[in-house]
């Protein structure tokens, strides 16, 4: 016996949305999520000449119906804000279709530009921020507050913490943030859904009176652990491994006294999922220039599996030209550094590290501005690209496909064809202020500038549906 609720996919269905009549097919309504409201309504028993009434805005429904028909937003979508479209898509259960249509194209640094600036409502200068790689959602620390923005960069919540100034932030779970401050001791976990502190971790040692009031410099996390670098007033420092489920300290990596550049607290931490190794680096600039180190830790054994210090003996890097910043490409298992004097970029394969693993990348394009060492250099790897901020300027190094001479050039330690350098910004962009931090998420690049309000959002072109937040 035939199910009375069954329909042929081409059967027509009439909907009365807010007093306006729409006619569509079962297949169109079912093109969204299986358990969406529209999919459920498509199972209405037949025959029924009366249209289904939905008490919602008919103009926005017209946009969303067009989205279900073509997988694209019509030009009329520009009449509505991101918030209005997102709210209605959530009601109908087709948020994933809207997200797909509104997401920017793949991030290509050569073709990227500023599309918006996200500014918190109060204390607009960001002291720290983090983004989610999967969807490009954003959490911004400004003063002692944290503001969250979803995949559409729509503000979802702001909570006030007990800290006066948050300087480190990472996302542990969808609604759980972990925070640190250079002005207050401890690592603190905050639940966004309730806006409350659900736990804190402090580095203490009853046998060592120097370990007190330890503050956090950097945070990273893996599926099961949080890694945080702590430092004390007398410069003792260590990396603590904290269990995510219990918020208890599991182990301690590399306690040291920061009396020299080779022993300072790590300012960058990154967990490498392919190997389970933790990347840690520290860079400082003094009267005699830049100096620092890179260490790779195995948290299972608590041992260093590779390290280098600069300036070193000359065998582990260019003598007299130490790095100003370093970063790691997690996808390609590649380490990058920017030299402080020449401004050159160098790379090393994490799978075959040795005493001197660096290959220096050269770019001979005469149309580009000359690369020189500048006062502030920031490096970040994302989407198999290397983004470098030099004072206010922003450039990208992109891998050249099918580079014939790459293997030969790698052997010589200098590679001219493996990566190509391009400038992302215009002159007016570079004049907005010194770049302090760069981070990627989704198909976006985010950056903040010294003493400038808000977080800049960079996307590649073809994003015709992006609505500016300015």
From TrEMBL:
Q: What single Pfam family name could you report for this chain, choosing any that match? A: BTB_2
Instruction: Fetch the InterPro entries from UniProt.
Output: BACURD1-3 (IPR045068), Beta_prop_At2g24240 (IPR057441), Quino_amine_DH_bsu (IPR011044), SKP1/BTB/POZ_sf (IPR011333), T1-type_BTB (IPR003131)
GO BP terms: namely: protein homooligomerization
**Which residue intervals define the domain Potassium channel tetramerisation-type BTB in the entry?**
13-97
Gene3D superfamilies, alphabetized: Potassium Channel Kv1.1, Chain A
Which residue range or ranges hold the At2g24240-like C-terminal beta-propeller domain? 134-459
**Top-level taxonomic group:** Eukaryota
Protein's name according to its UniProt entry: BTB/POZ domain-containing protein
